[in-house]
Amino acid sequence: MIRLTGIKTAIRGISSRGMASSSICAKNMNIIRSSSSSTSALAYKTLHRNRRIPSLPTVETPAWNADSAVSSILYETPIPSNLPKTQHVLNCLVQNEPGVLSLVSGTLAARGFNIDSLVVCNTEVKDLSRMTIVLDGQDGVIEQARRQIEDLVPVYAVLDYTHSQIIKRELLLLRVSLLGQEYFRELIAHHNHEGEEVEGKIRKEKYHPKNLPPSQALRQKYEHLDAITRLTKEFGGKVVDISDRNCIVELSAKPSRISAFIGLLRPFGILELARSGMMALPRTPIEGTVENGTDPSKDAADVVDSTQMPPS
């Protein structure tokens, strides 16, 4: 009886231990299940914290020298803009003091601009001068140059009259020959050192002044003077000086009209020419009028693109 009782007690102890261990395993499984949903990332990092991450591959940067660096910079430089160059008129209001002209022109020269026309004059204000500059360039580049000039100390403001309605004027003084084209050709050949043969050939021409009677040469000279005078008056100019062999005409007009007048007088023989730069002043619009067809009311065809309309 004693042995059987001891065996039963031992069996009960073993079974109680097994039940306790199974309950502990169940609790651990519940913990793992609960942790897998909310702290799985933390568990992963904890398990892999001591794992060594392999190093990234490295590539040695090639060494640059001056030649290769300059070649790369030139290759990567964008192509210059192909926008057309237009004529721009800048009106600078500057202080009336020495050195301002060289300062402004030096700024434009540093940017590579070729000044087509430059006029500087005093104004009715004692310390104020007006400078009118005409140059060719792209709109964006000219705007940068305008701002750079405006930042100069002796410059009050720089106004761009390019797209404004302005009055343009130039002054022309021109000395033209009265002796005819043959004498003028001989004069050019003499100063070009073309030789006596060329000059002698020109002198033998029929209408050369030396081959005409004096009275006929005199009539021809005054016929030339009359033609020049009438042409000058048609352009609004005048003859300001007359000598026995040439005359001087004066004309104030816009640049295109000046160029046309010079072209018409060239066959007479232009001996000397002095042409001022362009001066400009903006026009004052009249209230209640529409100038040059700039009607503020737009047509429907200008606002709506017919190609974007649905088919009818």
Automatic annotation (TrEMBL):
Residues 89-169 form the ACT domain. It comes from Dekkera bruxellensis. It holds the Pfam family ACT_AHAS_ss. The gene is ILV6. One of its GO terms (molecular function) is acetolactate synthase regulator activity. InterPro entries: Acetalactate_synth_ssu, Acetolactate_synth/TF_NikR_C, Acetolactate_synth_ssu_C, ACT-like_dom_sf, ACT_dom, AHAS_ACT, AHAS_small-like_ACT, ALS_regulatory_subunit. Belongs to the acetolactate synthase small subunit family. Residues 285-312 are annotated as: Disordered. One of its GO terms (biological process) is L-valine biosynthetic process. PROSITE patterns: ACT. One of its GO terms (cellular component) is acetolactate synthase complex. The keyword Signal does not apply. It comes from the Eukaryota. This is Acetolactate synthase, regulatory subunit. Keywords: Amino-acid biosynthesis, Branched-chain amino acid biosynthesis. Pathway: Amino-acid biosynthesis; L-isoleucine biosynthesis; L-isoleucine from 2-oxobutanoate: step 1/4; Amino-acid biosynthesis; L-valine biosynthesis; L-valine from pyruvate: step 1/4.
